[in-house]
Amino acid sequence: MDKNNFRPAQAARVLAALQARYPQPHTHLHADTAWQLLVATVLAAQCTDARVNLVTPHLFRRWPGPADLAEASQEDLEEVIRSTGFFRSKAKNLLGAARRVRDVYGGTVPASLAELVTLPGVARKTANVVLFGAYGINEGLAVDTHVKRISFRLGLTDALDPVAVERDLMEVFPKDEWGDVNHRMVWFGREVCMARKPRCAACELADICPRREPPI
DNA sequence: ATCCCGAGGG
DNA sequence: CCCTCTGGAT
What we know:
By secondary structure, the protein is mainly α. Helix content is 56%, strand content 0%. It is elongated, with a radius of gyration of 18 Å. The structure holds a DNA duplex.
């Protein structure tokens, strides 16, 4: 295999395998609106989606939309989201985001990457997740801990910086697949290609994985 | 580079 | 005990 053609060819194989394994990719975060998806995604930083889904029902019942949360006290919000970790900074950022969505965007979560990243606590990963999940827009490819680890292991990137990883992935995956690639890699990362002890023996991609254990 | 921070698994 | 979980701001 030519070195210059390795990544695109590898990406095509990875995509086919993940499509076969996960025919219907979707987020595992529970949210009914764009705003709620934004809140859930912010809470999901360094936290399992299962844990996030444990607190969001209470959060969304008490403060359904941005105008509601904008009036909440930080102490009350901290108490509700405490178990998701980083609860002080998450509460502060969510209150700031709620006020900005209410005051600057008329209560509607903006539908562009440039506008989303102006919200406190929202950078490219969260913005990409919200853009695709709420609006079906593939402006970028959300790179989280799973996407980063799996892309590196499978040889789709040599980069460690998430922005560079995103650029490499955008080059080798079709644009209309970016959102689904994220969902599929997250799913795959939970079930098979885990950080600590990957299940290489049960992995259908092991034969094309440069980092399978044990190595050939 | 460092800090933020709780909860579950091995 | 240590590592990891759909990161972001300083």
